[in-house]
Amino acid sequence: MIPEHASWTAEFVRLVLGPLLRGGSPASTPGIGAAARKQASGFERWVLPPPRRMQTTESVWAGVPVSVVRETGTKNERQILFLHGGGYAVGSPALYRHITWRFAEAAGACVVTPDYRLAPEHPFPAALDDAHAAWIACLAAGADPPRSAFVGDSAGGGLALALALKLRDEGGALPGAIAAISPWTDLAVTGASARPGSSDPMLNANDLAAIAAQYLAGADPRAPYVSPLYGDSKGLPATLIQVGSDEILVDDSVRMANRMREAGCDVTLELWPRMPHVWHAFAPLLPESGRAIARVGAFIREKAAGAATYIN
């Protein structure tokens, strides 16, 4: 169940740890790509590796570097394409290795995380193209769409929904489920919760337009493959959206869920009290992190339930 109140550790993250991290985030220096990535890469050395029971393999699929995580000694009947966040400008599979294995365990899945190209050097549609190529490579490796899921956080959550729209429009194979965590679905930045001057422990609304601009490079911020909020959601897979109640991106989640509901989609919106942006990344510090990841895993086990196949 979603807790009614935030834990004391969550309040610590909100008041102390979150602002410290935000001070070194890309949001603190809008428009910077390489410098922000250098800062983010410094955090990689502090990321705890997965436990020994989890196997991590680095490879290149269809020209896209990927990290593949699976539990050894078990048959991973499901597959997850995980798309990391970072405003389309920072982030890497290595930075997320402390939680991708947790999604693998929770869902009983093999998790493939593409190291997609980043802005400003590689603006839209580079990230979408790489995510699409990685998904096609997953299928070629044996992934079964009904037993697969897209999972993404922040910009990666928006990218997961955008990829689903693209596949739907092109008649491509869709996964059985999508889990979007604190997704950025509106790069036009029109949500009331993201009005100028707003902030949360992890993000500052005044920075969003500049971060979006370096990814857009002149593209329409209301194009559905950029901002899935503006697309027709009809026919998208069962979707779970998790977001903290006080995030500046909470309206991106609420409005996206409403649009999907109006289109007849199976969508579940979870508002977690006072959670910071993508609180899942604070596992095992926050008890809410483990609970939220467990809920994602349970959702995927329920919705991605086709005939069993195994990725090579």
Low-confidence blocks of residues: 24-31, 307-312
Helix fraction by DSSP (H/I, runs of at least 4): 25-40%
Largest sheet: 8 strands, mixed
Number of helices: 8
State the shape.
globular
- CATH C-level name: Alpha Beta
CATH superfamily: Alpha/Beta hydrolase fold, catalytic domain
Number of strands: 8
- How confident overall, as mean pLDDT? 88
SSE string: HHEEEHEHEHEHEHEH
Q: What number of structural domains do the residues give?
A: 1
Secondary-structure-based class equals alpha/beta
Q: Give Rg in angstroms.
A: 18 Å
Tell me the span between the first and last alpha carbons.
35 Å
**Biggest β-sheet: strands ordered side by side in the sheet:** 1-2-4-3-5-6-7-8
| Level-2 CATH architecture | 3-Layer(aba) Sandwich
Hey, roughly how much beta strand do the residues contain?
A: 15-25%
CATH domain fold name: Rossmann fold
Detailed description of the structure:
With 312 residues, the protein is of the alpha/beta class. The protein has one domain: Rossmann fold (3-Layer(aba) Sandwich). The protein has eight helices and eight strands; from the N terminus they run ααβββαβαβαβαβαβα. It has an eight-stranded mixed sheet with strand order 1-2-4-3-5-6-7-8, with helices on both faces. Helix 6 links the parallel strand 6 and strand 7. Helix 3 crosses helix 8 and helix 4 crosses helix 5. It is globular and about 50 Å long. The two termini are 35 Å apart. The C terminus is likely disordered.
